[in-house]
Request: fold
Amino acid sequence: MSDENDDHGSPARRSDSTRAAILDAARERFAADGYERATIRAIARDARIDPSMVMRYYGNKEGLFAAAVAIDLALPDLSALPREEVGRALMTHFLSRWEENEVLTALLRAGTTNQAGAERMQGIFRDQVLPVALRVCPDPEQAPARAALVATQVLGLALTRYILRFPPAVALHREEVLAWLAPTLQRYLTAPSP
Reply:
């Protein structure tokens, strides 16, 4: 039996376990401290490993950040829904993602203070959010602007609710958030151009 298939602490299993511990610690540290204040040393301490191991696997802080915040939003296929339900479906999905995944919090925090984080956010917008708008908006030429307006709402909520933690934003129940913001996303995506 090869080492890679050994279930008893093989090098391959230890390597996977170490990488997972590093990424978990990095996500927590980037979410709590942002990109600038998070350090390789602190991340290694949180992962209970030597800082040289972080460097071995990820090269530097930028490489670690890129690996830690790699995310697929797994956006729903809104084209399969009745047109009048796309805003609520999208807002529901985003709320679930923010509440279940600290990677997004780390990415938003870093995106506001660091060029690499901003570029990562722009890539997610371009590759994942814009295609959704292209599928559902009435005029494909307006899809970039409409997708950007959706992003203003989702990111604005995320910033005030999960990072700055404005008490009134935090206190809103999920259904209240949906009642307020789903119609706005709906309008941005499907309403006639003003």
In short: Confidence is low (pLDDT under 50) at residues 1-8. The two ends are 67 Å apart (CA to CA). The chain is about 75% helix and 0% strand. The chain has two domains: 3-68, 78-190.
